[in-house]
Amino acid sequence: MxxxxxxxxxxxxxEFAALRDTAGNEYRHxxxxxxxxxxxxxxLTGETRPNAxxxxxxxxxxxxxxV
Length: 67
Prior knowledge:
The chain is an all-alpha fold. The protein is built from 3 helices and no strands.
């Protein structure tokens, strides 16, 4: 059996609405979609994406953040 650690992420109404809407588009529960998004952002999905290293680029050069 897998062990999980629970975290709480405070979301504004707008953030939760966006999460709920995108989760619905993907046929996921918002909780499951949040986990998917976090895994994707951390590079744990196993998928290769052209922007997978975007976070490290932004950390190296904060001016790279799109305005």
